[in-house]
Amino acid sequence: MTAAAVTTDPDPAPGTATVPPAPTRTASTAASAAASTPVSAPAATSARRPALDWRIRFGALSLIWGFSFLLIKVGTEGYAPFQVTLGRLLSGTAVLAVAMVVRRERLPRTARTWGHLAVAAFFLNALPFSLFAYSELTIPSTLAGICNATSPLWGMALSLVALSEDRPTRRRVAGLGLGFLGVLTVLGAWQGFSGLDFSGTAMALLASLSYPIGWIYVRRTLAGSGSSTLALTGSQLFLGTVQIALVTPLFTSAPDGFPLLPTLAVVALGALGTGLAVLLQYGLVEEVGPTTAQMVTYFIPVIATAAGVAVLGEQLSWNTPVGALIVLAGAALTQSRARTPKPAPRS
User: What predicted TM-score, i.e. pTM, was given to this entire model?
Assistant: First the structure.
């Protein structure tokens, strides 16, 4: 779960914004998100070798985004969902603001760019973050994490309509069908969805749908904006914070206190899952490329499920992990492309 990240291929992790230099072939990318995602970094920034091996940072990013759903659940035990989202965005924005100052990044200068970023902030941050927080009032964090894994499937479905240059293939259509079969397995469709909280599950699925809508919008409107990905991402998070700050007082009252564990969960959710994770993803894409970096997306539901069961004691029936694996297999297919056969050598 993130706020924005740099990548150009399969879907970023939850909350990641994608700001490519030119339209790409897929609507979903990732981050994964993440989060998690577009603009190539200048060559000069990648000349310095990071102190930590990229595999360590990849593992850290997987853990951070995987534990985000657990942190949301803990946060909602002490705060209203909008308050969780507001705290998350405030913490994440603060982290990116510090990074922008250190790197001497300049904010976008045109009103047009800020307008597009406001729309991106709504679909990639304010809306999905709030929907996930509300959904976890009634569904387990494990189910929320698995619903998040459907983002590449929604992205594939939308890309067939929204991106004319994205041509369907048998492999990708098969992946789409397989993925939604996995969703039905997770939800226990053969049992008549017995025991399923429809409103909570629907909100989690809508949150996952919101991400590819935002990615498609960003790809179409912010390509070639002239600003760095970090500047665009930080500005986007700031606008998302403003949006939630305006809405929160209308639907919630001030908290009576600041319970320690939920407060720490919300701060960690923002500072780590929405701030630090973006910087990790940014660095990974620079070093190993978007295709490798986006593989973090497929670890998120696995870690979210393990965290929910081990830490929160959430119950897990056989169809949940099996369905999750089917969803991930389908998502992987939608992002894959058949290899072009090499021409036979001339004799």
Answer: 0.81
